[in-house]
Design brief:
Helix content: 55-70%
Mean pLDDT: 91
Structural class: mainly alpha
Strand order of the largest sheet: 2-3-4-1-5
Oligomer: single chain
Low-confidence stretches: 84-93, 455-463
Largest sheet: 5 strands, parallel
Number of helices: 36
Number of strands: 9
Distance between the termini: 82 Å
């Protein structure tokens, strides 16, 4: 040998002599070769007598051996390896070698690091097990195979891979799987026991001292996997399944997420080459998005493009952009996204299949079991059971905090296809109509919790009441939570009711939403809600209802989408309808909403004229509703006067509004009057600020802000906080900056036009502070 000292003994002795000669500790050799310290120790002690050829190669490289020494080390390792089988019977299945690794494997760094850590920390007396589960198309098998190749040097006693065919009509039985595993260890057919338990016992006894890696791919359930797991020793088993296998105890779990967009583009780049991706960078990003960052879909798109080297990425993007053709476009040879989904779909129970495909009809990004139950025609409890089955199968993702579920975009398309194939238009329409009726009844009853006409409690006969009184939201907080969580569902229901001619139900729901809409002025959807209700009123031939809902529409254009042109058009139409039916209340509202639109267009004199006309019109009305409308008009008029440089007259107008509030309005709750009073106090504070009476302005603004926060009305609290911030800045108050900062954040979240004003005020304050 190189130093003249002959090497003797078996593999373990040779390895120790070579390591000592190289002056390396076990830790140093472990680091250089990528083989764990525990594996090296097992080899040198003789517990591992015949490590695999790949392990020997990396050790030889780390030790700096020449070709002759490396060959000699390999020869000593080969002596200790199990002899290959020579029989050719049915059980002679070969060595169950790992499948070929994919050279363009991308991402999954944290998941791989977790498995490497698990391999290093494997307890010599307790074999490690990790379960890789998730929805179809996540690349579970590709990840497991890649990880197995990376981990191979840590497991010198062999690496074995077995497909359990979990998605086949007849998955591999534990008995047959054990026969293949035992055969891979060199056990002759005649020596393999007949019973499953005996086979499992022999398997455990043979693997107890082996540092081996076992890949069990495509498992169907826990009962299939459990008998195949080594019972003791330093082995590591990687199990892949479309099911969570939650019943397996004391196992590590590897959760694979969708790729990030940049990772999906990287995978595409590795498949088709960087030149094509650089040439159409945006198309590559769009393609990743259309594939939903699902690895299988990205790979299929890449393979399709690879087979068509002259096809532009933008062409495939245009094809996939059409939802009806997307799944057709995501196929390349035998690789098909639709086929991957179909394998899992066929495994489901009848109810779960119905639940999955009908849930694709739900609106919005996610849905509740309640919605799924309505669409599928199941009881709530059965729907929850189906949702859990689908989550366990990786076909739905559950919300981390709420009982809500969501689809992957491509899986939703597949489920919608199944509706067309298995249900047809009649059953589909019946499911949607059933859900529409239920949703609008619940939405109406929930919204009436905010209607001042009923003092915060919905009447028992509101649209026939809630469809499920036992499960109905109790009180405003629960009602608000339901309305916000199910916004997409009840809006879709309102849309369908309008399109199918159920106009009275549209009117009832929109009318109930009137007061609730004030709490969420930043929702742009109110334009659609009140446009549809105004159209329904017209189609029903009710000029009074048309005036009411056109006024609501004018409000939504003014306050929710900041579109004064359409607001004025709607207000003018409401004014004509109100005068046609002689409704003075709606006439006053229409004048007020029209004034707001004119003001936003910079037509101040015209806006003032309409507000004065509206106040006069409402003053002559005797109803409590007219008093509330008059308060709104007076507050708006005062604000306009102040902004026109008439703060004294503005203050007088707002004091008049405050006097009405203090006198009270018969039939209206103290809580409601307090809100109107808070608006008046806010405007009085602003009037005093305009007169530079800063100290007097602070208290009413604080009172207004407190009232709006107590009522949980962020759309009103944000502007009030900004007004207070201006006054505190003028006073040099220490709370000024924090108040303006909070106002800016609030107004930004609300998408308010005043967010720029808040940012400017904050910047001015910081500049002034810096120069002091």
């Amino acid at each position: 040998m190189r130093d003249g000292t002959p090497l003797t003994g078996d593999f373990g002795q040779r390895l120790r002599q070579l390591r000592t000669r190289a002056g390396l500790s076990q830790e140093a050799l472990s680091h250089a070769a990528g083989v764990s310290v525990r594996a090296l120790a097992d080899m040198e002690r003789g517990r591992t007598r015949g490590p695999q050829r790949r392990t020997v190669q990396v050790l030889a490289e780390a030790l700096g051996l020449d070709d002759a020494e490396a060959a000699d080390l390999e020869k000593s390792a080969a002596v200790g390896r199990p002899r290959p089988r020579t029989d050719t019977g049915p059980a002679a299945t070969g060595t169950l070698a790992l499948p070929r690794d994919i050279k363009d494997f991308t991402a999954r760094g944290p998941a791989l690091a977790g498995l490497l850590e698990l391999a290093r920390d494997t307890d010599p007396d307790r074999p490690g097990v990790t379960v890789v589960s998730g929805q179809p198309g996540l690349g579970k098998t590709a990840f497991a195979v890649h990880a197995a190749h990376r981990l191979a040097p840590h497991f010198p006693d062999g690496q074995f891979a077995l497909d359990l065919h979990g998605m086949d009509p007849e998955p591999t039985t534990p008995r047959d799987a054990l026969a293949r595993l035992l055969g891979a260890l060199g056990i002759a057919d005649a020596a393999i026991p007949a019973g499953t338990d005996d086979r499992a016992g022999l398997w455990r006894s043979m693997t107890g001292d082996r540092r081996m890696l076992l890949l069990l791919d495509n498992a169907v359930d826990e009962s299939q996997v459990a008998p195949l797991l080594p019972g003791a020793g330093p082995a590591l088993t990687i199990v892949t399944s479309r099911h969570s296998l939650a019943g397996l105890e004391s196992v590590h779990r590897t959760d694979l997420a969708l790729l990030r967009r940049e990772e999906a583009v990287e995978l595409l780049t590795r498949i088709i080459g960087p030149e094509r991706v650089r040439a159409e960078a945006q198309a590559a990003r769009d393609l990743a998005d259309l594939c939903g960052q699902l690895p299988l879909a990205v790979r299929i798109a890449g393979q399709r493009l690879l087979s068509r080297p002259h096809e532009r990425l933008s062409k495939l993007v245009a094809r996939l952009a059409a939802e009806g053709r997307r799944l057709d476009g995501l196929q390349a040879g035998s690789l098909r996204v639709r086929a991957a989904f179909a394998l899992s779909y066929r495994q489901l129970s009848t109810d779960a299949r119905t639940f999955l495909r009908r849930a694709a009809l739900a609106a919005g990004a996610d849905f509740s079991p309640e919605t799924g139950a309505l669409l599928a025609g199941l009881s709530y409890d059965d729907a929850v059971a189906c949702a859990e089955e689908l989550t366990d199968a990786g076909l739905l993702q559950s919300d981390a905090t709420a009982e809500r579920y969501r689809f992957h975009d491509l899986l939703r398309l597949y489920a919608a296809e199944q509706v067309a194939i298995e249900d047809g238009p009649e059953i589909r329409d019946a499911a949607l109509d059933r859900t529409t009726r239920w949703m609008l009844r619940r939405a109406t009853a929930a919204a009436l919790h905010f209607d001042v006409e009923h003092e915060g409690s919905p009447p028992n006969d509101a649209h026939d009441g809630d469809p499920d009184p036992d499960g109905a939201p109790a009180g405003r907080e629960e009602a608000r939570a339901w309305l916000e969580a199910e916004r997409a569902q009840w809006l879709a229901a309102l849309r369908r009711a309008h399109e199918t001619g159920r106009h009275q139900q549209v009117l009832d729901t929109a009318q109930a939403m009137h007061w609730f809409s004030d709490i969420n002025q930043h929702w742009e959807q109110w334009v659609e809600v009140f446009q549809r209700s105004a159209d329904s009123a017209r189609l029903l031939g009710s000029r009074r209802d048309e005036a009411i809902h056109l006024n609501y529409l004018a409000w939504s254009y003014n306050m929710c989408v900041h579109d004064p042109h359409n607001a004025l058009t709607s207000a003018d139409a409401a004014l004509v309808a109100a005068r046609d039916c002689g409704d003075g209340l709606q006439e006053g509202w229409a004048l007020g909403y029209g004034a707001g639109a004119l003001h936003r267009q910079g037509l101040v004199p015209q806006a003032q004229a309409r507000l004065r006309a509206g106040a006069d019109c409402l003053a002559s009305q005797k109803s409590a509703q007219a008093r509330l409308a008059e308060l709104t008009i007076l507050n708006s008029l005062g604000t306009l006067l102040r902004q026109a440089g008439q703060p004294v007259e503005a203050l007088e107008t707002h004091r008049r509004s405050e006097r009405i509030c203090r006198a009270g309005i018969p039939g209206r709750t103290d809580e409601l009057i307090a809100l109107y009073h808070a608006v008046a106090r806010q405007q009085i504070g602003n009037d005093l600020a305009a007169l530079e009476r800063w100290s007097e302005a602070e208290p009413p603004l604080r009172q207004a802000l407190t009232a709006f926060e107590t009522a949980q009305m962020p759309a009103w609290a944000g502007p009030a906080r900004l007004d207070l911030g201006h006054v505190l800045s003028a006073l040099g108050h220490p709370e000024a900056r924090a108040t303006l900062l909070a106002a800016r954040d609030d107004l930004t979240a609300l998408r308010s036009p005043r967010q720029a004003e808040a940012a400017a005020a904050l910047s001015a304050l910081d500049e002034a502070t810096a120069t002091m």
